[in-house]
């Protein structure tokens, strides 16, 4: 079928992918193939590279393969099978899924920016009790999303300078 949009599902997996994540990503790939025939999917795991280098390589791969969308999932993510469909439904150039930090304070991995005056900025994790999490689940504009689950319209990279990700 001509005219199908192409989606690259990319995993920056320095040491591979954890067993539970492998199972979840296989279920994701199967679900996408079965329930989203209007798209072509490719799956790429980049190993043995620092995370920022792996992310940049995935972007280059998506651009080179003429993909329309790039979904980046960290190697320990357990995505629901319908994740791609749910994220695409928002029709946004960049969208991420809410997840919580492993270890530490277990913050939701979204942040807000605060201008401290002039060129000084501060970023702060959104609290788990913040109304956008506790009272109004759904799509929200935030200043920073976590890199563990991000969907990009590949055209956004044409507006950015390389390297797209840096340590």
Question: Strands across the major sheet, in which order?
Answer: 2-1-3-8-4
The end-to-end distance, rounded to whole angstroms, is 40 Å
| Average pLDDT reading | 92
What amount of the residues lies in strands? 25-35%
How many strands appear in the DSSP assignment?
8
What sequence of helices (H) and strands (E) makes up the elements? EHEHEHEEEHEE
- pLDDT < 50 runs, ≥5 residues: none
Helical amount? 10-25%
- Tally of helical runs: 4
Largest sheet: 5 strands, mixed
Q: Compute the gyration radius: what is it?
A: 16 Å
Summing up helix and strand content along with how strands pair, one would put the structural category as: alpha/beta
Q: Could you give a quick summary of the protein structure above?
A:
The protein has 167 residues and is an alpha/beta fold.
Report on the architecture of this protein:
This protein has 4 helices and 8 strands; from the N terminus they run E-H-E-H-E-H-E-E-E-H-E-E. The strands form 2 sheets. The chain has a 5-stranded mixed beta sheet with strand order 2-1-3-8-4, sandwiched between helices. A 3-stranded antiparallel beta sheet has the order 6-5-7, with no helix packed on it. It has helices at 19-35, 51-64, 83-88, 131-134, and strands spanning 5-12, 39-46, 69-73, 94-96, 110-117, 120-125, 144-145, 149-153. The chain is globular and about 50 Å long. The mean pLDDT is 92. With 167 residues, the protein is of the alpha/beta class.
